[in-house]
Amino acid sequence: MTSNMEKATILVADDEFSVRDIISRRLTEEGHECAVACDGTDALKKLNAREFGLALLDIKMPGRLGTDVLEQIQVKCPDTAAIMITAINDVETAITSLKMGAYDYIVKPVNLNALVISVEMALDKRRLILENREYRLHLEDKVKEQAEKIRDSFLNSIASLAYALEANDRYTSGHSQRVTEMAVAIARELSMPEDEVEKIRLAGLLHDIGKIGVRESVLNKPGRLTDEEYREVMAHPEIGERILSPVVEDVEILRMVRHHHERYDGGGYPDGLSGEELSEETGVVVVVEACSNMSSSAEGKEKLSQGARILAVADAYDAMTSDRPYRWAMSLQDACAEMEKGKGRQFDPVVVGAFLRILHGTAEYKAPAAAVATLSQRS
Ligand SMILES: [Fe+2]
After folding, report:
1. Ligand 1 centre and the CA of 220: distance in Å?
2. Backbone φ and ψ of 229, nearest 5°
3. Residue 189: enclosing H or E segment and its boundaries?
4. How far away, in angstroms, is 371 Cα from ligand 1 center?
């Protein structure tokens, strides 16, 4: 008799030759591919050597019992279904083996038609379990993928808006992109983990988005800003954080945007946070005393994150080397000297160290020339 059941590789383990022979013959007739094992040890060896869809395990075998083999299957090849074969006086053990994960048990003398039905049901159940797992796995991936797409699309829209604003302004055109490339190069030179680098990349692209909330006449004012105008400009990191918070869940990215104008010594804005020096040699964190009384945050626990300190360096360098309505761009050499001067005060010395190595072409991390050119490449 043949059926439409799924064809599988089946291991028949029984110490009685006649039993394993008759079962394997019948299952072969049904279209399955059968292997036989004469005891528990032999069964384990064969299960280790290849993958089986189903194992028929006699419970009483010399050496390793069928239940021992079942236990090993659960651990080593849980996708292999198992059906126990048992003598009439050992049904209790067979029931226990169901609790251990066996799909079914059949009682000797084996009724071959009943066996075929049991095998069919076990293979069917196994197929459903595998398909369900596969479906769940893909469903989770799909949901994750969709969520990422939606998030990326939001972020891209915001970044496009920022670029559009920059592009309208000859002084800041390409600023966010250049800051991002330099910040990423510094983070890589400091051997930061890839997920942190990715956060810095996003924060770099979006760091000045808050300038949307600052009047154009103020942003492009050629002369000195009034106190009120200066306060308006100083609000852009906080505005940026507010714009991004509905779409950016990652607090570290939001804080980097908020803190890209903070100073290492605590004299920056909006929170007057100070930095922590991560010693390059020892990796020990040394807290730098805040010298600012701009806000209570400076006395609190929050410290300027490494990402914000990196953005501050990349941002300041790009600002120094770009024309502004009120001054011409500095030369690269002068800008490097300024960064050097600001070490330990405006800027984190470790970050400036990495930045200067990149500019001087001595960094371990080789940034793509198209992204960050060294001084010699630029001159
Ligand atoms: Fe800014």
Report:
1. 14
2. -65, -40
3. helix 175-189
4. 20
C-alpha to C-alpha distances, 149 to 49, 153, 154, 167, 199, nearest whole angstrom: 43, 6, 9, 26, 17
Q: Which two tokens stand for residue 272?
A: 């007057």
> In terms of DSSP bridges, do strands 285-287 and 276-278 run parallel, antiparallel, or are they unpaired?
antiparallel
Measure 261 CA to ligand 1 centroid, in angstroms: 6
Instruction: Residue 217: count other Cβ atoms within 10 Å of its Cβ.
Output: 8
Nearest to 181 by CA among 360, 313, 304, 280: 313
- Cβ atoms of residues 43 and 64 within 8 Å: yes
Exposed, middle or buried by CB within 10 Å (0-12, 13-18, 19+), for 253?
A: buried
CA 124 to ligand 1 center in whole angstroms: 62
**Which residues are placed with Cβ below 5 angstroms of ligand 1, an ion?**
208
Q: What is the pTM of this model?
A: 0.58
For ligand 1, the distance from its centroid to the CA atom of residue 230, given in whole angstroms, is 13
What's the pLDDT at 377?
Answer: 64
H helix count then E strand count, the chain: 15, 7
CA of 41 to the centre of ligand 1 (A): 70
- Residues 287-341: pLDDT tens digits? 444 434 344 444 445 788 999 999 999 999 999 998 877 778 888 889 999 999 9
Give burial (CB, 10 Å; 0-12/13-18/19+) of 370.
Answer: exposed
> Quick check: helix, strand or coil at residue 81?
strand
Question: Under DSSP, is residue 110 helix (H, G, I), strand (E, B) or coil?
Answer: coil
Distance 251 CA to ligand 1 centre (A): 18
Query: At a CB cut-off of 8 Å and minimum separation 6, what does 170 contact?
Result: 323
